[in-house]
Design goal:
Length: about 100
């Protein structure tokens, strides 16, 4: 009986530890870059900069204008989108 109790407690703690390790502390920005008519812009450069830490992460949009900036630590970010033939656009996001 003691052995069974020990095994149940051990596996319960193991499950709790593994589920706690699965928690994610970082975030991401995902979006689509479009022109004023709503058409997607492929190969646009999207950059997120955290002014407090100078962390800079960049991505390029795919054929449908979709981008994803992953594994960003919590903070405020300035996101800039650039594409040849278009004006550069910048937005700030507190996170």
């Amino acid at each position: 009986m003691k052995k069974l109790q020990f095994c149940l407690v051990f596996f319960s703690v193991l499950v709790l530890v593994l589920s706690a390790a699965a928690q994610v502390q970082n975030g991401q920005f995902t979006g689509t870059i479009t022109d004023p008519s709503g058409a997607s812009i492929a190969n646009a450069k999207v950059t997120a900069v955290n002014p407090a830490t100078n962390l800079s992460v960049a991505a390029t949009t795919n054929a449908t204008g979709l981008y994803s900036l992953k594994e960003l630590p919590p903070g405020s970010y300035k996101i800039t989108a650039e594409a040849p033939g278009f004006r550069t656009s910048t937005n700030a996001f507190p996170w």
